Amino acid sequence: MAQNTKQRSLVLTYSRDTDAINIHSVSTGAVAAVTATALLTPVFLGEHAHALNDEFARRLGAGLLAMLAVTNPELKPFISTTASPMP
Q1: 45 and 82 share a domain?
Q2: What is the domain count for the chain?
Q3: Is 38 exposed, middle or buried (0-12, 13-18, 19+ CB in 10 A)?
Q4: Which of the chain's termini has less CB crowding within 10 Å, N or C?
Q5: Domain assignment of residue 25, given as a range
Q6: What dihedral do alpha carbons 35, 36, 38, 39 form, nearest 10°?
Q7: CA angle, 38 as apex, 41 and 82 as ends, to 5°?
Q8: What are 11-40's pLDDT values in tens digits?
C-alpha cells in the first residue's frame, strides 16, 4: 500500500442538529487561512518528552472537550473529566 504523504489536519466540531462531536480530516493548506487568525493553543511535544501515551491522550481529549464547551455550553453538564492542564 502506498503511503499518503499529503499533510492533513483535524477539525473538531459539535453539531447541535445531530448531537454529535464531528472530526473532519482536511487538507492542512485548506485550513491555513482560517487558522491564521484563530485562537491557537499549542501543545509542545518536547514538554512531554514526545510521550504520546494514554495520559497525554486523556489530558489532550479533556482539554479539547473543555474548549468545545466554551462555545457550546450545553456540553458542560456531560463533561466529567478532571481538570488537569497540559504543562
Answers
A1: yes
A2: 2
A3: exposed
A4: N
A5: 1-40
A6: 100
A7: 35
A8: 999 999 999 999 999 999 999 989 999 989
